[in-house]
Specification:
This protein has 299 residues and is mainly alpha-helical. The chain has ten helices and five strands, in the order H-H-H-H-H-E-E-H-H-E-E-H-H-E-H.
């Protein structure tokens, strides 16, 4: 809204509408399911846990997608299978089985996705692996889906550092197994750079200490490029760039160590993924029986 509309006296009360928590999501799902024929196996509590960050509209859309999928398959009722497939469609985009990749591209994609999964699984700050797939979705050639065990409202520096390693897992897997990197890691690198820069400029998680660099301009009529106020010197900007590079360099080194250590395991899982195209959380966990893996942090 225009800041002029929010001056004292214009509105007596402001109501902040946040994303619903797990209990609220469960109740919202039950409301939107009233006008749909649902099977008894549909577990709204489980669905709510698997949809962190979803708004009420997202949850309504989710059940509508599930109902459409059930109708396409000539089913009279919506089951848990349709709901889970709809969650994947909403979160990761629709499957594009029509996109045909060469054998080499498919192999690189498999190793890339398993690289993400292995690194994330070996670090306590990353969320558990929910699914790995080399079926194209949207613009992505493959997907590794991490799903938090509970809603999280705070992120620590150690969690960000582990997530950076997980994001670089695909890039490093290509580097280790194929000797070069492809454009498939572009989005991962953009996300990693964004997190690293936020750690330095927004969250005070660097050697520069508890300082916030830059300020968001409240002028709503300015373009995006003009909406950021640079309130720091050129020397500070150079230091910020240096620290961002250092954070990413440390994450890359740690990631390469994990991938190198588990080369044989990555090869085994990747070969199985090439045959099955998709691995569930249960399938993935079987590879670690008897292996000591760090416990996931709860916050």
């Amino acid at each position: 809204l225009d800041p002029a509309l929010l001056r004292p006296g214009r509105f007596d009360r402001r109501v902040i509408v946040d994303s619903p928590d797990v209990k609220a999501r469960e109740e919202i799902l039950e409301v939107h399911a009233r006008n749909k024929p649902m099977k008894k196996d549909v577990d709204f509590k489980k669905i709510a846990k698997g949809t962190p960050g979803f708004t009420g509209a997202d949850l309504e859309n989710l059940l509508n997608e599930a109902a459409i999928l059930a109708a396409r398959n000539n089913k009279k009722k919506v089951g848990m299978d349709e709901v889970e497939k709809s969650i994947e469609k909403v979160v990761m985009g629709p499957e594009r089985k029509s996109r045909v990749l060469s054998k080499k591209e498919t192999k690189i994609t498999a190793y890339h996705e398993v690289g993400h999964a292995i690194v994330g699984h070996m670090l306590p700050g990353c969320d558990p692996v929910h699914k790995i797939s080399i079926v194209s979705r949207g613009r992505a050639l493959g997907v590794t889906w991490f799903l938090p065990e509970s809603d999280k409202h705070l992120n620590s520096r150690s969690k960000f550092e582990d997530e950076l390693c997980s994001l670089l897992g695909g890039y490093v897997a290509e580097e280790v197994f194929f000797g070069e990197m492809t454009t498939g890691a572009s989005n991962d690198l953009q996300r990693a750079a964004k997190i690293a820069r936020a750690m330095v400029t927004k969250f005070g998680m660097s050697e520069l200490g508890p300082i916030v660099f830059g300020d968001e301009n409240q002028e709503v009529f300015l373009g995006k490029d003009f909406g950021h106020v640079k309130n720091y010197s050129e020397s500070s900007a150079a230091k910020i760039d240096e620290l961002v590079k250092k954070i990413l360099g440390t994450a890359h080194k740690k990631t390469k160590s994990i991938v190198t250590k588990h080369k044989k395991l990555i090869e085994k899982i990747s070969e199985d993924l090439l045959k099955k195209e998709t691995l569930s959380a249960e399938d993935f966990k079987k590879y670690f029986k008897g292996m000591k893996v760090p416990a996931k942090t709860k916050a």
